[in-house]
Specification:
The chain has 347 residues and is α+β, with helices and mostly antiparallel strands. The protein is built from six helices and 17 strands. The structure holds 2-acetamido-2-deoxy-beta-D-glucopyranose (8 copies). One 2-acetamido-2-deoxy-beta-D-glucopyranose binds next to loops.
């Protein structure tokens, strides 16, 4: 009898522990994330590019216009759908975007294109600190993974990633809540675009910290308050804003001054959330993340990426990863160390 009772008590507590450690990936958890996105429709389109969209107007001159210029004003349509569904018990999130921003962008030359991005992935899948997706054992293996632009083309199988769109997503790590693409932290030269190692050249971005690549895909490599709050009027170049010019990394963090709490800024291609620089009210994430920039950030074992002032800034690779004692060789702005969060330690 006593042993039965002890067994019951053990089962009871194991059950409680299991319930407490459940990842937040219910249908309603997913729908709460959808509400963070600036969607233009609330259903999955057969072709996002063919939807009506919502007009964005910009009277800025010297910008490549991704729509029509009417009386000197550029007008384009942004198109964004984010929908959750229950696929036989697995909650999936489908994101469709034409990639155009809800604000002016300073794209001074080249192309600025409308995209057809459309993918579905398991929403916030359960992952474990004991079963890593990446376990780097040397500077060389870490650098090859984090510093190679296309290494994010492979999404962990457990995420169930399916690409339905026509835009190539090889260098994308996710989509921001404003519908703009988030890219790997690397430039086309496989180095930090902002703080390159000796011999490398820094790339320029606009004051919303985004720019276009060769095919005209407007994208972020680093977090910015523009993702969650629309700047009014024109958006100049980062170089013309003193604080941005002197430190893109610090400007990135300071742009979240009105969002000093846990704030969703995007969803990664592996189904995990991407948050701004704050873990909770006033507490900025400066440690507790792994080599991918991901972190076990609560007692439920939820794993997400955070915006940091150090390379890889948003999503360096698809984690969870280990906490190596060395950093990648393609930046002069890496973290001083990687440490487990208190939550990761307790799991
Ligand atoms: C979708 O949006 C339409 C109009 O914008 C609204 O009437 C409808 O209730 C919404 N549907 C859902 C499921 O939110
Ligand atoms: C989607 O719609 C756009 C605009 O109408 C069209 O150019 C494109 O061919 C369509 N794509 C597919 C795959 O049907
Ligand atoms: C959106 O802009 C187009 C011009 O590109 C215009 O014809 C149309 O009326 C605008 N739609 C709305 C809802 O303002
Ligand atoms: C934006 O720039 C255009 C010219 O590039 C100028 O005419 C307009 O006044 C500017 N708007 C604001 C709000 O500064
Ligand atoms: C999701 O689907 C599964 C199986 O089809 C069902 O058991 C479960 O209740 C559904 N969950 C929700 C939140 O609808
Ligand atoms: C990571 O790899 C090291 C060997 O390089 C091994 O000792 C360690 O257990 C691995 N960690 C995990 C969580 O798999
Ligand atoms: C970084 O390390 C990788 C792998 O060893 C190497 O291929 C690359 O050339 C190195 N890059 C720099 C900038 O030193
Ligand atoms: C950001 O600001 C901090 C404190 O003001 C400074 O120590 C750090 O070097 C700056 N980082 C960059 C990348 O400029």
């Amino acid at each position: 009898m006593l042993s039965q009772r002890i067994a019951f008590v053990i089962i009871f507590f194991v059950h409680i522990a299991y319930v407490e450690a459940a990842t937040s990936n219910s249908l309603s958890d997913c729908q709460a994330v959808v509400s963070s996105f600036r969607t233009t429709i609330n259903y999955t389109a057969s072709n996002i590019t063919a939807t009506t969209g919502v007009n964005v107007t910009c009277s800025q001159s010297g910008m490549v216009c991704p729509g029509q210029t009417i009386n000197g004003v550029c007008v384009w349509k942004r198109k964004l759908s984010v929908v959750c569904r229950n696929a036989s018990g697995i909650i999936k999130i489908r994101i469709q975007t034409n990639g155009l921003p809800p604000r002016c962008a300073a794209v001074p030359m080249g192309t600025f294109a409308e995209l057809n991005v459309d993918f579905e992935v398991n929403f916030n899948p359960s992952v474990s600190v004991k079963s890593l997706n990446q376990n780097f054992s040397s500077i060389s293996t870490l650098s090859q993974a984090i510093c190679t632009l296309t290494s994010v083309s492979t999404v962990p199988t457990a995420s169930g990633f399916v690409n339905y769109g026509t835009t190539t997503l090889n260098t994308a790590t996710g989509v921001s809540v404003d519908g703009v693409m988030i890219f790997s932290p690397d430039s086309a030269n496989n180095i930090d675009p902002f703080y390159p190692p000796a011999g490398g050249t820094a790339e320029s971005v606009d004051a919303c910290l985004a720019h276009c690549q060769a095919a005209g895909i407007y994208h972020y490599h680093i977090g910015t308050g523009c993702q969650v709050s629309l700047p009014t009027g024109n958006v100049s170049s980062c170089a013309s804003v003193t604080a941005c010019r002197s430190s893109v990394a610090n400007y990135s963090i300071s742009s979240f001054s009105s969002y000093q709490t846990k704030t969703i800024i995007g969803v990664a291609k592996d189904g995990h959330l991407i948050y701004g620089p704050y873990l909770s009210a006033g507490t900025r994430v400066t440690s507790g993340f792994d080599a991918c920039n991901g972190m076990f950030h609560d007692s439920n074992g939820n794993y997400a990426y955070f915006a940091t002032s150090t390379y890889p800034y948003l999503v360096g690779c698809f984690g969870p990863a280990n906490y190596p004692s060395f950093g990648p060789n393609c930046t002069t702005n890496g973290p001083s160390s990687y440490t487990m969060s208190s939550y990761a330690n307790a799991l």
